[in-house]
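Honest question from a wet-lab person: if I give you the sequences of every part of a complex, can you actually get the arrangement of the whole thing, not just the pieces? Trying it with mine:
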Amino acid sequence: MDINAWTALLAATIVAGTPILFAAAGELLAERSGILNLGVEGMMLVGAALGFIVTVNTGNHWVGLLAALAGGGSMAAIHALVTVSLRGNQVVSGLALTIFGSGLSGFLGKNYQGIPMNYGFKSLDLPVLSDLPYLGAVFFRHDILVYFSVILALFMWYLLYKTKWGLAIRSVGENPQAADAVGIDVSRIRYLCTIAGGMLAGLGGAYISLVYAPTWQENMTAGRGWIAVALVIFALWNPTRAVLGAYLFGGVEALTFRLQTMGINLSSFFLAMFPYLVTILVLVVVTIRRRQDAGAPQALSVAYDREER
Amino acid sequence: MKFKRIVVLTLIAMLLSTLAVGCGNDAEPEGGAPADQSENIKVGWVYIGVPGDYGWTYAHNQGREYMEDEIPGVESIVLENVPEGADAERSFEQLAQEGCSIIFGTSFGYGDAMLAVAKKYPDIKFMHATGLETADNLGTYFGRIYQARYLSGMVAGAMTENNQLGYVAAFPIPEVVRGINAFTLGVLAVNPEATVKVVWTNTWFDPTKEKEAAKSLLETGCDVIAQHQDTAEPQVAAEEAGKYSIGYNNDMKEFAPNANLTSPIWNWGPFYVDTIKSVMDGSWTSEAYWGGLDEGIVDLAPISDKVPAEVVEQVEAKKQAMTDKEWDVFMGPIKAQDGSEKVAQGQVLTDAEMLSMDWFVAGVLGNL
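Yes, you can. This is the full assembly:
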């Protein structure tokens, strides 16, 4: 395998990792506030469908992107209503959201299947950097959303660990009673984080339907929402580790076909299983080392009720 | 707390019921049948996908629309997006009860459902695309698309500059393997030095995977991409890379105006017309139909004007030979991938051997 094949593989890795990174960053934010949202796949699908439909009808991919954000956010708002205000079971509501999203997106996109779309995000070669040997081709010749996803993850790290709001979000996820006692509005923070998380999932979906493979097909996210959920655990709820994880998982996706072109006969089913296997391994290792919590927010998936102390 | 739990459960139930409506099988009676027609029969179709897939189901729907133009007065009832399994049986039952005289099922996995419903309604005819089992009132139909794939291989073999071709393939099953072999034999007929590299996606229908697979082939240097997939994404990948491509199912030129050279295509229309006419005049009998270029059920889309005229002539000549049944793709001598002789000089593979093909011809780079 020559050096050009390697750079092509790594560049493909970053593109494949980007939709997962958006969705995982969103899920991470929601989980940090204590809300487990298993509806990522559904929110991504609605985002992908709306992003594509609106782009086709308006001819403007930025408007499509806004629609995807709104779609993912509205889906997440349903989840927030059920789990925060009504204190419903987060697992059940999230799963329902996934199934609902796959049905809704299929319904909305019915007349848009297979339509070719020629406008979208073109690659934006960064000046100077894109001319670097090898590194330029791997990192600096992508579309603007790729750069944005990395900046977003770094910003989220800063938000969570270096700001007052981040402290509030984490405290709500760790111990809502205590947060409430010091005057933090638990419900408001959980609503905001869940909805923002849904918007990012919608963005991840739109990345697939507008950039990665500019088209709409039913269930086109093909399980990436679940990979994002696994990725949050893999990253131990840390946004910077999520970047590395997204590219690891993206690399597996990019590798699936390139191994075949190299004539290596490794089953593609094995490769598809690999990200989840790594997640389980990471969980096992971390649990053994830290004994129990593995870094999960203490109050994750636990409804907060002021009256139940 | 009990009240809230009820509210939550109700909300979830509402979400789920919306879903059920969203994916429900919409029965769409189409085609206005004039009431004064004397031969007013109903015909049913069960589609595995939606006509908008620009692939398999699209091709069947084109055939259905062609039939409606050819035989006025036929009312067609279409069920879209019917999954294989228990749902399928219900759908065929529904069409039978609506009074269809003949019902077409367009996916391999409908076999058991169609067999069961056919037994219950002996007076209704059933036709199962790509199927294996037949009964008194259940026939199967498919086309020799491998013939068109051979011709598309000749075009591809003539247009490659570095003798490296790529093939994005769905599943390692006889239907797909037969297509890869036929394509490769077509390539080798005009360009004995060339190789065809195969990548499996393990899906019929996944735009991102299909595109990634095509890109991985392009990265290794392949300059013509062929496909056995249902979306046009491999064409788009070739267009973006400035290389050539061969489509499938329908003329895929619109997706890749510069890259696309031609496509092996389905033309179900005449078959649907003949079959429905035979039901109307009572001459229908159960059969396992496997028509080729001679019947017109498979064909080659118009060849791009980038292809030199002498190549087009060669392709036309081979097509004529197959149409006249003077020659066929799997006629010896044919070498297997390891170089051993698989089909001897003068020998021709039988239909049964073709339908169970599980070996690659020499020139294919890939694993089964």
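Two things worth pointing out. Residues 2-23 of chain B form the longest helix (22 residues). Residues 22-143+268-295 of chain B form a domain with the Rossmann fold fold (CATH 3.40.50.2300).
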